[in-house]
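One example given next:
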Amino acid sequence: MDLSKLPRLSKTDTGSPPGSNSPSATTDPAAADSVPQSAATATSFCNHCGAPLRSGAKFCDSCGAPTGATYAAAAPQFYAEPGVGMEAWLSALIGLVLMLVGRSFALYLLATLTGQPYHTNVTWMEGPKEGQEVGYWELQGFTALSDSAIFLFGLTMVLEGVVLALMNTRFKAKANLVAVALVFTVLVTGYNAAVALRLMTTGLIPITSLLAIAFGGYIAVFEWHLLQQLRPALRAAARR
């Protein structure tokens, strides 16, 4: 009998049934050594979108960008909710309308900065200044205070629209822009609060300034939370 044709029991494969995809119990050490040791680990993240990368992946499963160099922590990304584009346009348009309403303050400010006289075309009818032109800040009804409060809040709304519009772009100074917008919003809201208090002491109801206080507070809170989201991105970019 030819014993060479009998099955060799020591080599019999008792593993998975035919068609099974499970790996063999034995592993070739040479194959294990062939795996690149520089492949991205599970704690690596995509430089483009911040999504976690699979070990050895050459492209991101989330956005398809090449992995390239990886960093240890993913930077939080800002994801705009539906309607942000409309909110940006709405904020900018309302701001422009308010700036037009308070344009007298802008003209006065421009004339002052350029050293030109600003004419109110109103003269004193009596008193020691009779016949002289009334100064802008001397106009009755606290016109200068009202104009300045409206104009500055309109500028705040326009700046907020710019912030919303740039959040989904690759603009690199987002955090700095939000920080500037936040400081400006807080200052303008405080100014409107002072104007409202001054007008209420004279019996007037400063509806515009009161609305500016309410909306300004909301905008300041939104920008503060947005800044907290963008700060880790700045730290991650600085470590690269």
Observations:
- Residues 40-74 form one domain.
